[in-house]
Amino acid sequence: MNTGRQPVACTCYVFSCNRQAHKCIFHIFPAMIRERKISEPEFLPLLELPKKKVKHSDHYFIFRDRKLLLLLDSGIAALPSGEDLISLGIDIQSKQYLGECGFSSCFAAETSPAFTEIHDLVFEDIRKLPAFLEETLASLAGRAIHLLEWDKNTRYCGRCGSETFRKSDERAKQCPECGLLFFPKISPAVIVMVEKDNRILMARSTHFPPGRYGLIAGFVEPGESVEEAVTREVMEEVGIRIKDLSYFGSQPWPYPDSLMIAFTAKYLEGELRFNDGEIEDAAWFGRDEIPHIPGSTSISGELIQSFISGYR
Ligand SMILES: [Zn+2]
């Protein structure tokens, strides 16, 4: 008979966590971490390290399998510094300089796939970071993984196959043979909250977990404006026409390289239909009927909260 303690599944809000609770940082440390975030000034993107009279510890955004390495110190989650890399024997590769946060230089890098979590080091999903790190640093983690992925995916020219090099005067790479330039790829996507009679439209994709509904969203296609993309996505996914399209805001979404551009709109005409195989249900929800409210750190969460709060 097995008398050992049964592992407890993680119930944190990150859908893909899939960890046991004792291995998830949200369960290891209590909510007090969230009240003790690191305070940092604004970020200044740079290509070259400046000559500095005053130097603080560097910030290293180190990834393995798209998860960020955090150093746990007395209940506080922090980014490792250059000194930490040496003292903890953290081997990094693909290092990129990002810019300056106050007097701290910021770097993106990856560990080898074989590097494992040791004592006070954990790898965490970057979607959890707003709970631990000041907003600027949490946002920088997204920038860091975006640039690391871009670097990996553009090592060779897609036109002639030559090895590319990093340019020194801009964040770009170039082919030495044919001159083709490679800028960090950003894939614009749109998301829209459509309102009708004090209710908003939410739809359920076939790959959503049980009970989950979301706002209509999709990628912008070549040759299309973002406004045209919103109108097309709503028509394609649920078969209705919209009006009064209004810009709400935008958010970098590095999963892997999107920029989410958010809108609000009003219902114009048509009946909800969803028979394209992508959407299995769609409906109008009042303020007290919303089936799922994303975290406030996502722009879809901000959109829905603006509706619930009645600011619109
Ligand atoms: Zn080339």
Textual characterization of the structure:
The protein contains 5 helices and 16 strands. It has 312 residues and is of the alpha+beta class. It folds into 2 domains: 21-150, Nucleoside Triphosphate Pyrophosphohydrolase; 187-308, Nucleoside Triphosphate Pyrophosphohydrolase, CATH 3.90.79. Strands 1, 2, 3, 4, 5, 6 and 7 form a 7-stranded mixed beta sheet that branches. Strands 11, 12, 13, 14, 15 and 16 form a 6-stranded mixed beta sheet that branches. Strand 5 (92-101) and strand 6 (104-111) form a beta hairpin. The structure holds zinc ion (ZN).
Give the helix/strand layout:
Elements: H1 25-28, E1 43-45, E2 59-64, E3 67-73, E4 76-78, H2 82-87, E5 92-101, E6 104-111, E7 121-125, H3 135-153, E8 165-166, E9 173-174, E10 181-182, E11 187-196, E12 199-205, E13 216-219, H4 226-238, E14 241-253, E15 258-269, E16 279-285, H5 299-308
Parallel strand pairs: 2-6, 11-15
Antiparallel strand pairs: 1-5, 2-3, 3-4, 3-7, 5-6, 8-9, 9-10, 11-12, 11-13, 12-16, 14-15
The protein binds zinc ion.
Keywords:
2 domains, globular, Nucleoside Triphosphate Pyrophosphohydrolase, 6-stranded mixed beta sheet, 312 residues, binds zinc ion, alpha+beta
